[in-house]
Amino acid sequence: MRLLRLGLSLLIMIVLNSVPSESAVSSIDLGSDWLKVAVVNLKPGQTPISIAINEMSKRKTPALVAFQSETRLLGEEAAGITARYPDKVYSHLRDMLGKTYEQVKEFLDAMYLPFDVVEDSRGAVAFRIEDESGNVSLYSVEELLGMILGFAGDLAEFHSKVVVKDAVVSVPAYFGQAERRGLVQAAQLAGINVLSLINEHSGAALQYGIDKDFSNGSRYVVFYDMGASSSYAALVYFSAYSAKEFGKTVSVNQFQVKDVRWDPELGGRSMELRLVEFFADEFNKQVGNGIDVKKSPKAMAKLKKQVKRTKEILSANTMAPISVESLYDDRDFRSTITREKFEELCGDLWDRSLVPIKEVLQHSGLKVDEIYAVELIGGATRVPKLQAKLQEFLGKNGLDKHLDADEAIVLGSSLHAANLSDGIKLNRKLGMVDGSSYGLVVELDGPDLQKDESTRQLLVPRMKKLPSKMFRSIILKKDFEVSLAYESNLLPPGVTSPVFARYAVSGLTDASEKYSSRNLSSPIKANLHFSLTRSGILSLDRVDAVIEISEWVEVPKKNLTVENTTTTSPNITLESDKNTTEESDVNFNSDGVNENLSNNIVEGPSTTELATEKKLKKRTFRVPLKIVEKTVGPGMPLSKEYLAEAKRKLEELNKKDAERRRTAELKNNLEGYIYSTKEKLETSEEFEKISTADERKSFIEKLDEVQEWLYTDGEDATAKEFEERLDSLKAIGDPVFFRYKELSARPTAIKVARKYPGELQQIVKGWETKKPWLPKDRVDEVMGDADKLKSWLDEKEAEQKKATGFSTPVFTSEEVYLKVFTLQEKVASVNRIPKPKPKKNESETSSNNTNNADSTSGETPEKEKQTTDSNGSADEKTNPDGSAYDEL
Ligand SMILES: *[C@@H]1O[C@H](CO)[C@@H](O)[C@H](O)[C@H]1NC(C)=O
Ligand SMILES: *[C@@H]1O[C@H](CO)[C@@H](O)[C@H](O)[C@H]1NC(C)=O
Ligand SMILES: *[C@@H]1O[C@H](CO)[C@@H](O)[C@H](O)[C@H]1NC(C)=O
Ligand SMILES: *[C@@H]1O[C@H](CO)[C@@H](O)[C@H](O)[C@H]1NC(C)=O
Ligand SMILES: *[C@@H]1O[C@H](CO)[C@@H](O)[C@H](O)[C@H]1NC(C)=O
Ligand SMILES: *[C@@H]1O[C@H](CO)[C@@H](O)[C@H](O)[C@H]1NC(C)=O
Ligand SMILES: *[C@@H]1O[C@H](CO)[C@@H](O)[C@H](O)[C@H]1NC(C)=O
Ligand SMILES: *[C@@H]1O[C@H](CO)[C@@H](O)[C@H](O)[C@H]1NC(C)=O
Ligand SMILES: *[C@@H]1O[C@H](CO)[C@@H](O)[C@H](O)[C@H]1NC(C)=O
Question: Which domain of life does this protein belong to (predicted)?
C-alpha cells in the first residue's frame, strides 16, 4: 500500500521530459568490499526507488574484478574464483586510489593479497595482468575501478530496463582530493556521468530525514558507520526553516553536516584479520613441522572467506565453528571460537571504535544527552561488543537502528541523484548542506613573490559548504605557480605531502610588459577563481590579469552638431592579444592609431569646425592567463591520451564479455532444447500420432549426437557454432512440434468455425427486423461466404482424414481462424451501414461542418470515438503544475 502510494506520487511528480525513459538515474555505494546500486526510475509500473539486484538476486555485489585465462569476471563471478586464483581477483581497489606504490604494496602484504603490481610513472600502483599467450597488460586502479563501476551501471540498466547514464557515487568522508578525482575518472572510463560524489554520511542523513518533519523541533543526530574497512561518526543538525513558495509560507526541512571524524583503518576487516591470524597460527600449530600457512596466498584466501562467516555467526551466537576443506597441503582445518575469545582478540579495537564519536562530540561542545539519536549503519556495527561499547558510552541515550545498516547510504544517495537530475522532481524536499572534509589552502610561488601571509591563504575552511566558489586577488607582475594543499593539521590517510595540485600560470609577464609603458592607475593584479564542487573537489578554474589604466584622450566634443561629418571610429586593433577583453570603452586604440586620431576624423564640409577635448579615461583590461596543471605523484589525474586509450581497452573487454555471455546463453539454449525435446519425445504418447518411430529415432539420435558434441568439442565452441546446431535441430524438430501442437489446436479451431454459421443466421434474422435498410446484396454476400466456409471445412477435413498424421497437415488451425475472422469482419462492416438520412440541404451543411476530417464518413464512428477519448483523458490527467502531488 505504502509502496504503491510512493510509486504513484513519484510518477505524478515527474515534470515530464520529452523522453521520459531517460529520466532514470542511479546511485552507487562503492564500498571497500561491496557494491550497492539503487535506481530512481519513473517507468510506469516500477517502484520509483529500488535496489538493483544482481544476477544472483543479491542486493549487494562483491566489488571485485578478476582476469582469468582471457576472461574478465566481475562481481559474483569474480568472487567465485577467489579461493582458486587469489592472485587474479582484485579487491579493495577503492582503498588504493591516490596511494603510492609503496603504500599499496604494504597494504597488500598485510591483507595477504598476492597481486602482481608494479609502479607506474605517477608513482602509483599498476596491476600486471598476463594472458594465456604471455601478453602483459598494465591496468591502473582507475581502470579496474572503472570496470567495477561499469558493472554497477549495467546492474542499474538491467534492473530498470532503461539506459541509466547519470549516477551519484558515495565516498567515505575521509576521501581526499586525489581519491575523489580518481573515482570520477574511473566512472568516466565506465561511461558513467557522475552527477556528484556524495559523502556517505550525507546519504545516510538524507535517508534518515526524508520522511521526517523538523518544523516542531530541530535535532542533532550522530551517524555512526563502521563498514568493512573504515568507520566514522558524523554530527548532523536537522531543522526546518520557513520559505515562500508560490506566495505561501511553507516549512522546509533541511540538514547540515556539522562535523565528521573518522578512523580510516578500523572496520570489520580489522576484526576479520585478527581471526585470520588466530586461526592461521592455530593451524600451523596443529600441523607442526614449521609449516606456515600464511605463506600460501590460496590458503589465506580460503581462510579469509570462512572467517567472514565465522564472524557473522558470532554476532548471533556465543560460539562459532570454522571449517576449511583442504586448507593447505590437502589438510582440512576445523576449529571453534567463542565470542569471548573473539572479543579478546580484538581487545584494543573496542576503545578505538569510540574515538570518532568522542571527537565529534568534543569538537562540537555538545554533551551526550544533547544528541537526539545515534544511528548505526554499516555491516560491522552488527558486532554485539561494538554495540555494547557504544551503548555504554552513550548511557541512557540508547542507540537507534532505524536505518537499514546496509542500504541507507545508497538509498539516500539516490534521492540526491533524483534531486540533481533534470527529469525528476521530488515532492518531498530536504535541503542538504554538507561541507569539505578538509581545510584547504592556496599557495602562490613565483620569482616576484615573497612568501608571506598573502602567498599562503586558507581558501576552504574545514566543513565549508559544498559547492562554493572562491576568489583571490594578488598584486603580481610575473608568471607564477599555484599550489593547492591541505591544511597541514589534517591530511587524508596515507598522504604525506599536503600539496595535492599544482598549476603553472603564464601570460602575466607578457601582459605586464605590454602595458608597462602605460599610465597604470593601480598595480597589475592576478585574479584567481576557484571552485569547490558538490563532489568536494577543489580546482583552479580561471586566472585573469587585471590592468587598470588612466589616460587622457582627445575626443570630439560631445555637442558638436556637425551634420555631415563622418566620424570614422578608428579601427580597434588590440595589438596581438585577441583574448583581451576591454571593459570600459570600445573606443580604445593602440598607441599607433592614437597618433593618427586627428587625421582619422575626416572630411565633409564642416571639418573646420571640428573641436576636440581631452578627457581622462579609466579602463580595465582583463587578460585571461594560461593555466597548466602540473600535479605530480600518485594522485595525478590520468592524461587525456591515457583515458582515451583506457576507454578503448575497457570497451574491448566489455565487448568480449558480451560475446562470452551470448555464447553461454546460446550454449544454454542448445542444452535446454536437447534436454526438453528428448524428454517430450520419450515420454509423450501423443508423438506417436504425428511421427513415425523411425522419424523419432533418428531425431533422438541427432539430439544425442549434438549432446555428445556439447560435452566434448563443443565445450569451448563459439556462439555461432551453438546457434548453427540449434538451428539444425530445430529444422527437424519444428515440423514435428508443429504437428504436435496442431493435433489439439485444429479440432478446437474447427469447432469454433462450425459454430459460426449458426450464429450468423441469428444475426441476419435480427437484421431483418431491426435494420431493414441493410442492402440485400451485402447480406446475401455474407451468407454466401458462410456457406463457402462450411464447404471449405468439409473438404479440408476429409482431406486431412485421408492424410497420415506424419505428414505436413493439410490445413492449419491458423488458416481456420483467419477465415472465420475475415467473415466476422465483413459481417461487422455490414452491421455498421447507417440508416440512410432523409435527403435535405440542411443535412448537407451539417455534414460539411464535421471537423473530424480524418473520419472516413462515419464508417467506424463508435470505435474512433473511443480511442480519442482514452487518449485525451490520459493527456489531461498529467497534471502539469503538480498541485495534486502526493507526498513521497
Ligand atoms: C599480444 O597482443 C598483441 C596486441 O594485442 C597481439 O597483436 C599479439 O598477437 C599478442 N601476442 C600473443 C602472443 O598473443
Ligand atoms: C507539531 O506540534 C503540534 C503541537 O505540539 C502538533 O499538534 C503537531 O501535530 C506537530 N506536528 C508535527 C508535524 O509533528
Ligand atoms: C535539492 O536541490 C535543492 C535545489 O538545488 C537544494 O537546495 C537541496 O539542498 C537539494 N537537496 C538534496 C537532498 O540534494
Ligand atoms: C595618469 O593617471 C592619473 C590618474 O590616475 C592622472 O591624474 C594623470 O594625469 C595621468 N597621467 C598621464 C600622463 O596620463
Ligand atoms: C548643444 O549646444 C547648444 C549650444 O551650442 C546648446 O544649446 C544645447 O543645449 C546643447 N545640447 C546638449 C544636448 O548639450
Ligand atoms: C551629407 O552631404 C552630402 C553631400 O555632401 C549629402 O548628399 C548628404 O545628404 C548629407 N548627409 C546628411 C546626413 O546631411
Ligand atoms: C580599418 O581597417 C581596414 C583594414 O585593416 C582598413 O581598410 C580601413 O581603412 C580601416 N579604417 C580606418 C578608419 O582606419
Ligand atoms: C581565448 O583563450 C581561450 C583559452 O585561453 C581560447 O580557447 C580562445 O580561443 C581564445 N579566444 C581568442 C579569440 O583568441
Ligand atoms: C461542402 O463541401 C464541399 C467540398 O468539401 C463544398 O464544395 C461545398 O460548397 C460545401 N457546402 C457547403 C454548404 O458548405
Answer: Eukaryota
The confidence score (pLDDT) of residue 878 equals 39
**Which of 130, 133, 656 best tests ligand 1's pocket when mutated (most atoms within 8 Å of CB)?**
133
The predicted pLDDT at position 566 comes to 47
- Say if ligand 9 is within 6 A of residue 848 CB: yes
Cell of 501: 595540485
* Distance, CA of 739 to CA of 8 (rounded, Å): 47
Strands 61-62 and 626-629: unpaired
Alpha carbon 306 to chain centroid, angstroms: 32
| Residues 301 and 86 sit within 8 Å (Cβ to Cβ) | yes
Does any ligand 1 atom lie closer than 6 A to the CB of residue 121? no
Angle between helices 776-802 and 719-770 (to 10 degrees): 140
Choose among 189, 225, 233: nearest CA to 97: 189
With a 6 A CB cut-off, is 133 part of the ligand 1 pocket?
yes
* Ligand that lies nearest to the alpha carbon of residue 840, given by its number in the listed order: 9
Judged on CB neighbours under 10 Å (0-12, 13-18, 19+), 827 is buried
Cβ 622 under 6 angstroms from ligand 8: no
> Taking all residues of the chain, what is their mean pLDDT, rounded to a whole number?
85
**Quick count: other Cβ atoms within 10 Å of Cβ 444?**
21
Q: Evaluate whether 530 touches 471 at the Cβ level (below 8 Å).
A: yes
Per-residue pLDDT reduced to its tens digit, 324-338:
999 998 899 999 999
User: Whole-prediction pTM value?
Assistant: 0.73
CA distance 638 to 714: 43
Which numbered atom of ligand 7 lies nearest the CA of 593? Answer: 14
Q: Which ligand is nearest to the CA of 212?
A: 2
Quick check: 778 and 830 in contact, CB under 8 A? yes
Inter-residue contact 314 to 342 (CB < 8 Å): yes
